Amino acid sequence: MVKANKKRYYIYAAIDVERNEFILMGVYTTKNFLTTRSFIKEVLEYCENKPRFAVDKAP
User: Fold this and answer.
1) Most buried residue among 16, 18, 56, 59 by CB atoms closer than 10 A?
2) Taking the C-alpha atoms of 46, 47, 51 and 56 in order, what is their torsion angle to the nearest 10 degrees?
3) What is the DSSP code (8-state) at residue 5?
4) 28: how many CB neighbours lie within 10 A of its CB?
5) Does 54 map to a domain?
6) CA–CA separation, 42 and 7 (whole Å)
7) Considering its fold, how many domains does the chain have in total?
8) Chain segment 3-56, per-residue pLDDT in tens
9) Distance between CA atoms of residues 33 and 48, nearest Å
């Protein structure tokens, strides 16, 4: 989470750990199921195999 101009922004990022590359990054004003689901759907468009998702314990 990043605060700017008294607003909170949540950063989502997908990384290919084998190639050490960013797949996709998004900044959202909310953190909920629908936001997460839409981000994952967008990430899956770039994936060829079965991806593995890891989630950090950000607030």
Assistant:
1) 16
2) -20
3) T
4) 15
5) no
6) 25
7) 1
8) 999 999 999 999 888 888 889 999 999 989 999 999 999 999 888 877 888 777
9) 24
